[in-house]
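Q: Structure tokens for this one, please.
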Amino acid sequence: MNLYSIKITFNPNAFWEYLQYPFMQKALIAAILIGIICALIGTFILLRGMVFLGEAIAHSAFAGAALAILLGWNPLLVIMIFSVLSAVSIGYVNEKKIMKDEIIIGVIFSFFMALAILFISLMPVYSTDVTSILFGNILIISPSTFNLLILFSLLIIIVMFAIKKELYFITFDEESAKISGIPVRLLSYIFLILVSITISVSLKAIGAILVFAMIVTPAAAAYQLTFKFNRLLILAGIFGVFSTVGGCIFQ
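A: Here is the predicted structure, written as tokens:
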């Protein structure tokens, strides 16, 4: 069965019929995982007031993807390098208080977006892989990308819950956290790296544009309903999964 014909004729009533195919089963699992990790990361981004951090890292990841396509390298590896580089750069400048958070995020966003355009312009012929990175296609996610998504999703969930209380403390009272002996600097960089990994592994499935929405929207929706932290995480996860699975059903 041709995937393109499936996409054209896909409708909610046919969802359960297509669920018997391995590609749809992988898409559904990927959607659930992406919904969970994006919501989990997005909750802390929202609470820390770094909403556009995800946008900056997503576009730096897009620059990495463009370079990988240009050179014929493995996209995920280069995407992750660019994502981590931009996240650590933002963290370093924030730590040194060289400029305000929103300024450095804007600079990083513009720089890597310009790099992406440069790499695309250097391609001898336009590649459809560029479009797939920008917009994503969860239905044709490769086995290797799917396996890495599962691996990194479990890693992100485990690490986030392991440092959840400390991150919560840092978010609302960084000075008291330092006095209490919490390694604020280390945990802040770990969080930024987790953000970059989340975006990197989600990029091939949902694209650079949608990944930013998936990080911000579920957490923002949950924040309208509760101010209790644990309930906020649960609601954000539910909204995230509902959004991604709903996208699979109604696309």
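A few notes: The domain at 30-245 is CATH 1.10.3470.10 (ABC transporter involved in vitamin B12 uptake, BtuC). The radius of gyration is 18 Å.
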